[in-house]
Hints:
Strand order of the largest sheet: 3-4-14-9-10-13
Oligomer: single chain
Shape: globular
Helix content: 40-55%
Largest sheet: 6 strands, mixed
Number of helices: 16
Order of helices and strands: EEHHEHEHEHEHHEHEHHEHEHEEHEHHEH
Distance between the termini: 48 Å
Bound molecules: pyridoxal-5'-phosphate
Structural class: alpha/beta
Amino acid sequence: MQRPDLKGNFEEFGGRFVPETLMSLVVDLEKTFNALKKDKGFKKEFAFYLREYAGRPTNLYFACSLSEKLKTLKVYLKREDLLHTGAHKINNTLGQILVARRMGKTRIIAETGAGQHGVATATAAALFGLKCDVYMGEKDIERQALNVFRMKLLGAKVIPVTSGSKTLKDAMNEAIRDWVTNVKNTFYIIGSVAGPHPYPMMVREFQKIIGIEARKQFLAKEKKLPDYLVACVGGGSNALGLFHPFFNDKKVKMIGVEAAGYGLNTDKHSAAILKGKTGVLHGSKSKLLQTKDGQIREVHSIAAGLDYPGVGPEHAYYKKIGRADYVAVDDKQAIKGLKLLCKTEGILPALESSHAIGYLEKLAKKVKRKSSVIVCLSGRGDKDVYELKEIV
Length: 392
Ligand SMILES: *Cc1c(COP(=O)(O)O)cnc(C)c1O
């Protein structure tokens, strides 16, 4: 059975919960994307920009010192941190902007929390000379001044959102409002495997290059498949990008690492799969962190990119059918992971990716025999050094 099905459902998750005014637009986008997915010219164009502009393929690096330290694990890192702009997000924004161009759209909008998706979108928009407006909560604008400046340098306009909690979820609502008003010329670039169908599927299709490359590279080096895949989960795009091409390799275990923030027993975390309830957010049904009366909860993670109250519907589905396991790593363990990779390998990972690294010690103790693991190193940590300086 194909997932998602033709209506965008991953069993009870996913779907398309949008106002009537947007329905024809998302249906139009779905038709366009389904046609482009099979279009040789489009595939070639996407591959061209990934290669020439973003820097693909990324290395699958054997982390020898880290593996020695962990003893029972042979660790390979998929180096998405080496891409242009320093993270996997560029795979998706390049893909979507190429779709926007094919649809004749002249204006791009996006929403951003930490600013990383905003920067990746502004980058792609600059490359193709498209107008770009990025919605961002007022609170986030204060917290992420550097990324705001970056977006402006790239020619994007950052629009402050002053409603609600003045953070990501409010920015998403504003972006959707803008989209409804300006459907004719505007394309909405969503930053993870979330949103109404076809977005979760489309973003996965753009990110699955991570797993396609990693699978091939691992086979070439080890002449077999890995025992484990590990990736951090915010909305879930780098994780699905790595996981999806291994879906039918039943022996390969997948582990998604959510952010436990101050701890899963506090209300300051963002572990939507482990602690969330089924509900609808931003156009699709999935697991999300909500209060007793169904309001979206404030969430926390030291990693700005994991600080999202929901998760992509395909992860809720993977969890339900048991295809992937989900665990959580708190702020402290993530910092420990970051330091470990710095010291053993000379690689400064993003705080998001540090959650995946932070889980390895636990995994190393759990495995019964020497096992191999591919970790998605979703981004580099240069963006985090200011914040780290305050706490480390
Ligand atoms: C945004 C971001 C994430 C989280 O997003 P996903 O959609 O879960 O991949 C993870 N790592 C980095 C470096 C990011 O910038």
